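Inverse folding, one chain.
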């Protein structure tokens, strides 16, 4: 069963998100009223605000914060800075955050935010002033009990520090729990930086026996050797005995049949800015990497990488989506028919939001955990969540993506039903 129409990038993302709800609603028998609630954002804020630029001029920027659903708890989701940010994109991302939090059973709803800007063309001072102005505009609807932002595309721990400080100045006291993804010195959590990749590695390990793969000695290919992809590969290599044979970034890829040491490749990329040119490896393209014969393929780059045009050429036994949306739905159907195990993004890359939840919980308590506790708790969440999704997939005879959405949407619908409608 396909969860998204179309086979490319020219699709309204919010229409896609709404269609996903309809498909799952048919499968689990939701009534029209519940469908309508699950297809509609709870709250949307559009803001237009001036920022003083370094040359003394002022520019007006447009930004959004969408709180999609809060039935299971305060909403949670990142803020992105990008020239292509749109309200429908933010709505869709907020919906997907709702389902991601629900599939790993966090007590959160979903939200997302964005500002239309090109951070690559802005100085640090301009970015700070933009961040503080945007934070001031959305301040009435964020807070540790209401909506907790986090980093996303072209935002980072420094961005979160500015938001936390702006919010705290308005309150008159420090409120570290208003955001996650902060620096450790301001209440960030141990293990947050590697959480997405580590969570992905745990899900791969759990899925491997069902896919006929032995992780020890398994061959890996990583498209997008950045934070999530490189960390997943390093953990699979160092802790589980897997072997990286191919990796790529935006400049190209490398392949070495007898294995590439992940630490050495990380050092090479840190020095040169790319994986290309790694000693002893041959050059391959991103497209060739996807079609390499390996046990585990980790798409950790951009959306819409596996399509109906190349899905029949995928030779991996497991496709673990460290990126958001790398597989289009027509490809899902093809991979399912080929008996390739796909670990969908709302499960495979949910380690990040899980440790964000841990950070928020630590901030609320004012008590911080050692790295070992964060890691153990993350492992428990990811193992349980994979097993929950696998059980639904087996019972309903659907692929893992549909199973993950069934599980998530059912949990949100149950929360709405139990709470009722006020007043």
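Residues assigned per position:
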């Amino acid at each position: 069963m396909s969860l998204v129409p179309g086979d490319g990038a020219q699709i309204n993302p919010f229409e896609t998100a709404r269609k996903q709800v309809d498909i799952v609603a048919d499968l689990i028998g939701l009534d029209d009223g519940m469908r309508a609630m699950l297809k509609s954002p709870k709250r949307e804020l559009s803001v237009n605000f001036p920022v003083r630029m370094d040359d003394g001029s002022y520019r007006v920027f447009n930004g959004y914060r969408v709180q999609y659903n809060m039935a299971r708890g305060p909403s949670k989701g990142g803020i992105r800075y990008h020239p292509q940010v749109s309200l429908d994109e933010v709505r869709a991302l907020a919906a997907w955050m709702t389902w991601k939090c629900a599939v790993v059973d966090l007590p959160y709803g979903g939200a997302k935010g964005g500002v239309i800007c090109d951070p690559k063309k802005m100085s640090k001072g301009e970015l700070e002033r933009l961040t503080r102005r945007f934070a001031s505009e959305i301040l009435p609807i964020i807070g540790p009990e209401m909506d907790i932002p986090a980093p996303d595309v072209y935002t980072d721990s420094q961005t979160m520090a500015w938001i936390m400080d702006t919010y705290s100045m308005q309150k008159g006291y420090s409120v570290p729990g208003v955001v996650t993804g902060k620096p450790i010195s301001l209440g960030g959590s141990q293990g947050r930086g590697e959480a997405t990749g580590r969570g992905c590695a745990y899900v791969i390990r759990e899925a491997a026996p069902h896919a006929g793969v032995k992780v020890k000695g398994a061959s890996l290919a990583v498209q997008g050797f950045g934070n999530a992809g490189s960390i997943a590969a390093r953990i699979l290599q160092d802790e589980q005995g897997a072997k990286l044979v191919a990796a790529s970034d935006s400049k190209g890829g490398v392949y070495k049949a007898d294995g590439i040491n992940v630490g050495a490749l990380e050092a090479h990329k840190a020095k040169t800015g790319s994986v290309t040119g790694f000693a002893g490896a041959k050059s391959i393209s991103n497209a060739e990497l996807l079609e390499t014969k390996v046990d585990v393929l980790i798409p950790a780059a951009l959306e819409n990488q596996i399509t109906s045009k190349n899905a029949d050429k995928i030779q991996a036994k497991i496709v673990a989506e460290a990126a958001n949306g790398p597989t289009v739905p027509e490809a899902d159907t093809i991979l399912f028919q080929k008996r390739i195990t796909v670990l969908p993004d709302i499960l495979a890359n949910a380690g990040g939001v899980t440790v964000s939840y841990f950070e928020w919980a630590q901030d609320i308590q004012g008590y911080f955990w050692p790295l070992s506790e964060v890691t153990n708790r993350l492992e428990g969440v990811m193992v349980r969540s994979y097993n929950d999704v696998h059980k639904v997939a087996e019972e309903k005879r659907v692929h893992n993506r549909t199973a993950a959405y069934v599980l998530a949407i059912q949990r949100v619908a149950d929360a709405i039903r139990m709470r009722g409608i006020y007043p």
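The first helix runs from residue 13 to 28. The mean pLDDT is 95.
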